[in-house]
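Example record

Each entry pairs one chain with its bound ligand, glutamine.
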Amino acid sequence: MCHGDDAARAANARAVRGGPLAGVPMLLKDNICTTEFPTTCGSKILAGYRPPYDATAVTRLREAGAVLIGKGNMDEFAMGSSTEYSAYGPTRNPYDLGRVPGGSSGGPAAAVAYGLCPIALGSDTGGSVRQPAAFCGVFGLKPTYGRISRYGLVAFGSSLDQIGIFARHAGDVALAYSVLAGPDAYDATTRLGDAPDVSGWERGVEGLRFGWPENLWKEGVERDVIDGLSSAAEWLERAGAKRVPFDFLPGEYAVATYYLVATAEASSNLARFDGVRYGFRHEDSDDLRALYTRTRSAGFGAEVQRRILLGTYALSAGYYDAYYLTAQRARSRIRHEYHEAFARCDFMLLPASPTLPFKLGEKTEDPLAMYLSDIFTIGANLAGIPGLSVPVGLTASGLPRSVQLLGPEDSEPVLLSAGRAIEMKGDQTKFDHRHESEFAWPTKR
Ligand code: GLN
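Structure tokens for the complex follow.
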């Protein structure tokens, strides 16, 4: 979804002022509010909706001189792992048009992969930046919870949501992060104090310890994914990091916990789409209750309705203790487990997804199989910690391979320099972007 030349020209005029992202074309996932483009969240219920304000992330990009070229496709309300649940049709993987780009931020990930723009923003509630980044062979950062303002990001699971960054180089992720991260008076959940300084992203990994998941083969991970992980581990070791074996933390438990917490929060957040305040309204309703019911039944797709039903059930009287409270307890436990693990290593090396990009239609009829795509990413959202997907070249059949780095809160500088160390060793991409130089990092000018 790209919008008019006029908007690009106007943005360009602003970009001429300069700034660290002066003139850099950027794409935004279609759940990030901008005044000049519609924000649909991939849903019919928001068809044509134009927000009256800019998200804080958008304001900061504009001030840094970026040129916003349009919006990227997504699973409806960011619920999905393949971008097939968009009311506007699926996005395809640029490496193989018969396969999905991952989701829910599949549009921005695919756009960065094939070179439409060098940097794009997505949102990550349970993996929606890291998993599509992995499927499309680009970098994808989910920052520490509260580091990038959620003001103007349409809420899905507010305690899990973070805006994330796609780019083809570690340095470009760092640059966008340095522009976006920091407290915001419009979002009371942003962390106070300055965001960590990521200008040392070329520092290397000498002396760092990385966690290596010894029990991984028990989790049903594809061979090619394990091969990618082994290559990345060897590259990190050659660059001076030390491997510390550990058992992979909360997999299935994290998925179960997430699908209670996220759906509960979504059922509350999505209550505002009622045909009165925003976008689509069902015309054929003669009383208020019918207006709500018909608008929501016709405006939301099947997956969104499924989540709202699950979440409403988990929060309902009589079931709240059994489901929602139990999930909150499990969440505290998961947080604690990550905390303990980071006492033994500086970051962990994990897959971003147990599989390579799958075929279109392969999982749409099986929601549980789709949910399990996020087994390695969901823990970071529950624990509020940052994660970075890093490309590690292609498989023999030409599909992107990727790894995920997870670290404790505010470890973005470590993740980016480890990502950079891996980037320096790998060299294979289908779309040859090596002719392009990275954007000048402000401190180097
Ligand atoms: N795939 C997960 C879900 O469907 C995560 C989505 C996301 O991170 N927005 O909920």
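The chain has a mean pLDDT of 91.
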